[in-house]
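Hi V.,

Quick status before I head out on leave. The structure for the redesign project is tokenized and pasted below; the design run finished overnight.
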């Protein structure tokens, strides 16, 4: 979030990525299934990360309508959409469920670079899709302002314990 330069990035557009309800498969889980059984069925484990198999992300690419200290807005028209894997469809996925997903500027030509910081720049957090096709987000500057305000109002407090108390607390867990 510290990177502010948009040199080499698309400045007139942004992307919003999230997990729409329409692209997630909901399944009933029987109570007799063990935790391990559920994990093997629904979670893909890759190195140090875990991914849900039934949640598929979706990315909306939009031109910027507004980007100020209050909001970042764009447009997503669901009619006659070209999807990456399905091609042309009459109606694209509804963004319900994408709220909270990142909005970001991408490198020119949407080219992946060796470093993520050279590929994406945080633009904000998507929060709403309206019936008039408007997508709305909280802009980067407001997100940073809110985090700083939270930190000021709720500072982290640390208590240093003697080594023997730390070892005792760890042995109890």
């Amino acid at each position: 979030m510290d990177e502010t330069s948009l040199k080499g990035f698309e400045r007139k557009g942004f992307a919003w990525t999230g997990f729409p309800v329409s692209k997630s498969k909901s399944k009933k889980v029987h109570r007799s299934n063990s935790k391990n059984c559920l994990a093997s069925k629904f979670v893909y484990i890759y190195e140090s990360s875990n991914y849900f198999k039934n949640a598929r992300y979706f990315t909306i690419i939009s031109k910027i309508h507004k980007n100020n200290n209050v909001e970042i807005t764009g447009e997503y028209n669901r009619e006659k959409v070209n999807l990456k894997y399905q091609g042309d469809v009459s109606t694209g996925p509804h963004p319900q469920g994408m709220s909270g997903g990142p909005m970001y500027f991408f490198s020119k030509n949407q080219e992946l670079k060796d470093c993520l910081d050279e590929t994406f720049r945080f633009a904000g957090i998507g929060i709403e899709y309206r019936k008039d096709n408007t997508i709305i987000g909280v802009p980067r500057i407001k997100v940073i302002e809110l985090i700083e305000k939270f930190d000021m109002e709720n500072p982290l407090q640390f208590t240093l314990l003697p080594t023997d108390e730390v070892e005792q607390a760890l042995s109890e867990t």
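Above is the designed sequence. The radius of gyration is 21 Å.

G. will cover questions while I'm gone.

Best,
W.
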